[in-house]
Amino acid sequence: MVERLRQLRLTHFKLCPFSRAIRLVLGELGLRPEFVDVQPWALDRTFLAANPAGTLPVVETRDGRLLIGAYATAEFIDDLGSDEAIRACFAAEPVTVERSSRRLDTLFPGDIDSRAEVRRLIDWFHLKFDREVSQELLHEKVRPVLDRKTSRAPDAAMLRAARANLKYHLSYVGFLADQRRWLGGDEISYADLAAAAHLSIADYLGEIDWEDVPYAQVWYQLVKSRPSFRPLLEDRVPGVAPPAHYAELDF
Amino acid sequence: MVERLRQLRLTHFKLCPFSRAIRLVLGELGLRPEFVDVQPWALDRTFLAANPAGTLPVVETRDGRLLIGAYATAEFIDDLGSDEAIRACFAAEPVTVERSSRRLDTLFPGDIDSRAEVRRLIDWFHLKFDREVSQELLHEKVRPVLDRKTSRAPDAAMLRAARANLKYHLSYVGFLADQRRWLGGDEISYADLAAAAHLSIADYLGEIDWEDVPYAQVWYQLVKSRPSFRPLLEDRVPGVAPPAHYAELDF
Q1: Is the torsion defined by CA of B237, B241, B242, B248 positive or negative?
Q2: What pTM was estimated for this model as a whole?
Q3: How near does any CA of chain A get to the CA of B153, in Å?
Q4: Could A127 and B128 be called an inter-chain contact, meaning their C-beta atoms sit closer than 8 Å?
Q5: What is the ipTM of this complex?
Q6: Which residues in chain A are contacts of B52 at CB distance < 8 A?
Q7: Residues B107, B77 contacting (CB under 8 angstroms)
Q8: Rounded CA gap, B137 and B49, in Å?
Q9: pLDDT of amino acid A63
Q10: How far is CA B2 from CA A10, A128, B91, B115, in A?
Q11: Under the phi-then-psi rule, with left for phi > 0, alpha for psi from -120 to 50, and beta for the rest, what region is B107?
């Protein structure tokens, strides 16, 4: 009997930071999923039956597995370990990876201490930055445009708080980028992808003055220039236009 | 030269769900840390220099490592792997583990699919439940009591929303507990500990009617009866008294 193989599929929202983090991961691995676009506040019954948490992204692997959420997906890829195992599980066909920049070899590189440091930073972005900045910006600036039920003007006090938080986070990214080659250490890791995923949404929404944070800017330029990032720069959400510099590599 | 060994130390807040999850993990591993009690909204400079995210818990291992946050700590323990490695890193002296109930052998038991399922559920509690229930309850019912600067009456609308969310989460726990021996599958895992950590705070605050959710209650009784849970049942926060059933094993 021939194993029935499906297409690798990613259900995501273009401005969801967790979805973007996993899109970057798949891109670094040379994998090109088929995309299913959804909005986090308008998920249908089929989606909710598969993932009652109603969270994004959801990855359907070539061998029929369902991976739910960025945490389970990233650690699953780490558990698989070898390129061959990842390929067998995810890739529908042999993939050629663009070698214009060095590929990310593993999501959590180095020894157990380096891995803990990378995970500390991922937690920073997926838990703290998400709550203090990403979700607030999406709630005030994106949802009211796309979701008629919540249509209203942004709450000025909420936006002010999110902006103040964003400044603090950017200064910490700058501090790290000044001390280290990549946020987690000498090698690029999932921490860089997760951080860039969140920051790219604030950037899409015109909330970042890069000139104020030169070290953070240099680091972001490095991540933004990677082939895995290109599809994110082409994202457009109707009714929410990014600033001119959003898609520029030299910004 | 003799390696300088320190005492295992956990900096935590008694009603922080992430702190509780790691207390349960350490308890299951037979480790008894020295506790440093802090309040998440009143962290001092020394703490913030070590952990600028201002998140809890922070674990200082016997060999001088600093582990920041529940995510990095739990995955670090998984990376260590063997009991011996965990012991060498964490335990100040040989520990005797109470064997009245079967110990948790590994935080993420089973094959890679089981591990992904456990992590899906951890994400559910640490990201979704935390945002929709734990942080809301702490913000409305605990912080105003302990933190003079924010002293005020709870916001009725926020509490109503958190309670409605809690009902949905409890029904999902009940659904899982009806289908499976433990939340993640046949074996107890970190998913049970993380879920119980969050629920134990809602329970401390008198927000759970266990009679409404009998399957969830049976599962919670199992976790609550473990020796690792006992210290949590003895926690008391000044000015916030738990209901009578909080510390009872037969509730």
Answers
A1: positive
A2: 0.94
A3: 21
A4: no
A5: 0.94
A6: 172
A7: yes
A8: 28
A9: 87
A10: 53, 39, 17, 39
A11: alpha
pLDDT digits (tens, 9 = 90+) for A146-157: 998 877 888 999
Chains A & B: contacts with CB separation below 8 Å: 90
Instruction: State the best of B79, B106, B122, B139 to mutate against chain A, taking most chain A CBs within 10 Å.
Output: B79
Q: Nearest by CB to A120, which of B69, B120, B131?
A: B69
Report the percent of chain A where pLDDT is more than 90.
82
| Chain segment B82-106, per-residue pLDDT in tens | 888 998 898 866 555 554 456 788 9
Give me the residue label for tokens 């994106």.
A142
Which alpha helices (H) appear in A29-134, and where do they start and end? Answer: 45-50, 70-80, 83-90, 112-123
Cross-chain residue pair B115–A68, CB shorter than 8 Å = no
Which chain B residues have a beta carbon less than 8 Å from that of A71? 71, 119-120, 122-123, 127
Cβ separation of A67 and B113 shorter than 8 Å? no
The model's pLDDT over B144-194, given as tens digits with 9 standing for 90+, comes to: 999 988 778 889 999 999 999 999 999 999 999 999 999 999 999 999 999
Residue type, A195: A
Interface touch B127/A76, C-beta < 8 Å: no
Mean pLDDT, range A244-249, rounded to an integer: 94
Nearest-CB residue to A172 (from B52, B67, B126): B52
Residues in chain B: 251
